[in-house]
Amino acid sequence: MKKVLIISDTHGLLRDEVKAKLPTVDFVIHAGDINTPMVLQYLNEHSELFIIRGNNDKEWACNLPKILAITIEGVRILLVHNKEDIPKELTNIDVVIYGHSHKYDDKIIDGVLCLNPGSCGNRRFNLPISMCEMWISGETYKYEKIIIK
After folding, report:
1. How many CB atoms lie within 10 A of CB 58?
2. Where are the domains of the chain?
3. pLDDT tens for residues 46-99?
4. What gap in Å lies between CA 76 and CA 94, rounded to an integer?
5. d(CA 110, CA 107)
């Protein structure tokens, strides 16, 4: 079983709650809007990282992909930053992870989990600060929303 920490929209802030999770997970997925190379560097030093570029990730992040397909165990995952960039036709995808809105969301659409972990960066409006953990075994997964106080 693999444990995955799913975060998005850190906007230059890597909270202690996120750092505390890093030793407990096999992978970190970041769905964009990292905002600073320091966050990217820290995550790279402390975890196996899958990361994409968000709309606020400027020139320093030009080498990061805007869309990324990965497989963990047997679960096929597509990463995009903005929900609007999810391809209309999803083939061979089990989970889509996106960010951008800073609002947690999880829905099954046509058999595909569409998951936004929310934002664990600076608070936006009155939205909760959140991230997600996922456990993957073979071709099955379970996940849990984590609210940061």
Report:
1. 10
2. 2-148
3. 999 999 999 999 999 999 999 999 999 999 999 999 999 999 989 999 999 999
4. 5
5. 10
φ and ψ at 19, to 5 degrees?
-55, -40
Q: How far apart are CA 130 and CA 114, in angstroms?
A: 16
CB neighbours of residue 147 within 10 Å: 12
CA distances from 121 to 2, 91, 135 (A): 25, 32, 23
Architecture of domain 2-148: 4-Layer Sandwich (3.60)
Residue 142's identity, in one-letter code, is: K
The DSSP annotation for 99-126 comes to -SS---EEEEETTEEEEE--B-SS--TT
68 class by beta-carbon count within 10 Å (0-12 exposed, 13-18 middle, 19+ buried): middle
- Residue 82's CB: how many other CB atoms inside 10 A? 16
Question: pTM of the predicted model, to two decimals?
Answer: 0.97
